[in-house]
Amino acid sequence: MRSGHRLGQPPGGRPGRRFGWLWGAYGTSALGTWLAFGAFPLIAVRVLHAGPAEVALLASVGAAVGAAVAVPLGPWVEFRRKRPVLIGTDLVRCAALLTVPAAYALGVLTFLQLLLVSVVLAAADITFRAASGAYLKTLLPPEDLLVANARLESTSWATTIAGPPLGGAAIGLLGPVATVVADAVSHLLSALGIGAMGGGEPRPGPRPARLRAGDLADGWRYILSDATLRPLLLNTALFNGLVMATQPLLAVLMLGELGFAPWQYGLAFAAPSVGGLLGSWLARPLVTRFGQHRVLVAAGAARAIWPVGLAFLGPGTGGLLLVIGVELGLVLCCGVFNPVHATCRLQRTATHRVARTLSAWQVTAKACTALLTALWGVLGGLLGPRTAIALAGVLLLATPLLLPRRAATRPAGPEAEPAPDRV
């Protein structure tokens, strides 16, 4: 019997009350995160008078070290009930964030503290995502996973639209530390929402007597031995890493050489988020009509064609409209791809391996993004921002070659092992 039905959740596209609590907690936390978007760099610059190198260090090293710290947490989460882990990671993020306004009020805030908090947040975020994916698979039957992931995706884009403008207004009125407090409160509310869900949770597998070094690689071994998960990981890690690596260069190009105002830069990336909402709403109807694999491949290929257009960016209204158009097309395709990809990944992963697999996935993605961001920073200095952006766009055109070539033969059951390549 499927795990979602064991918990008594209604099938057929109506995930039920308990998912509603989880969805609400996710939305609250996501809104808080976007309210505080850019707060740490702003505090580093305005309060601690940090330079560009320190701000770059805060962005890249915090994520990379946090990913390394999260490596042993995947196997640890696998053999524990997931709801207490979700509540715990929310409380850890809340506590870590609150140290910043506390230190600021006492006049003892340092750059090292910001760096350490960013590491804690990165590790907690990876752990939360791994535990939430594992919990979602036990909470819902397989046929409801796409509906749930589409709702989470649409919420993510909605908070992306609303959060930064509201956060910017709050920063203007109250200062950047105020948005950090708002982010901390959002994680506390998320923990309370998850705690209010009630209900049971399947007992995890028996815990090993001790965690061996080889256990840390279980998630990667599982992914790399599966004919569907392996190309999906390579595709998403490379695609997301290249897209994120160009963002600092695009900021330099638009705000420096081309002379766009900060509000124009913000508009160019906030307005296209509407495409993400539309894409997430379209995901389920498209899968119903064309099938999961076709939509996955089509949306994954379509999202890769847009970023190269940024190499032709010019000044003025025309340039602004070009960025909005490119980002709108990119975000629309990502809005379709992301929930379909997340659903496929959960279906392909055995229930007793979800936390380890998702943890390995998130660690790989964050490490790849940090590495490519640093590399493209060097390339931008050597070749210029526009040339480096164009190079990333050309490489992105090849990423569809890494998408799965065949539809998955069957979803993974509770005891399923990876499906090998067919010869």
Automatic annotation (TrEMBL):
This is MFS transporter. Keywords: Cell membrane, Membrane, Transmembrane, Transmembrane helix. PANTHER family: INTEGRAL MEMBRANE EFFLUX PROTEIN-RELATED, MAJOR FACILITATOR SUPERFAMILY ASSOCIATED DOMAIN-CONTAINING PROTEIN. The chain crosses the membrane at residues 21-43, 55-73, 232-256, 262-283, 295-313, 319-337, 358-379, 385-403. It is a multi-pass membrane protein. It is found in: Cell membrane. Its main location: membrane. Pfam families: MFS_1.
